[in-house]
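Amino Acid Chain and Its Fold in Token Form
===========================================
Purpose: to set a sequence beside its fold so the mapping can be learned.
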Amino acid sequence: MRSWASPVFFVLLLPLGGAPRARAAEAAQDAAGQSGPDPAAVSTVQKPHLIELSASNWRPLSRREKFGLFGRDIIAWETHLSLGFDAAFALGIDDRNYLGRGGQGYLRRYGINVVDEATGTFFQAFLFPALFHEEPRYIPLERGPLARRAAYALSRVALTRNDRGGETVHKSKLLGTVVSSAISNTYDAPRGHPKGAADAASRAAISLGSDAAFNLFKEFWPDFARKVKLNVWIQNLVRHSIRDVTRGV
């Protein structure tokens, strides 16, 4: 549900790989003869009651927990960082010029992004998953051939687990995207020129494509980070920001 700008923003953080804080951490690890902390272990240390979601520790969420997904996403700093970056990028290329320029134009874009995020997450992470008994989170595959993992990641906008553990059409994602796109059309449009069904369909298609791309980022980020030997601080910052979590046993 998060803005498409999330992976772009974190990629821009890569030059920080040589930051003093990261170098100090790596030096301490080398001195201790360690290869570096396991990202999942770091996540457990930072949030003792939560661990990174995987196929092996998955369990269905209660309605209350699904509502918690919505609440956490709305207040998360990563969410607002990516929404703010998206607003700045849109302002820079003069996207939706009817929203204006300068500081006022930025705030309008950011405000619309926040409302879009809240609406989309409410329907896609809470309401429809609770009604249809579906899993709204992305469960990484992590193992297997590259093509199989890529196909799996892309398919998760159309398929998901139900609360019994079987595979089902991802009605929450598909219907939630259509509904939230239609709602967005009521306030994100030039004054006096309301958008129609074609605009809503286009917005929904772009949103689903963005979510599919973000699933790829979630699936392959740990592999990419290890391959290019990014320092642990950057690896964990991004991993903890994009991977879903579950309660530890």
Summary: The two ends are 27 Å apart (CA to CA). Residues 5-247 form one domain.
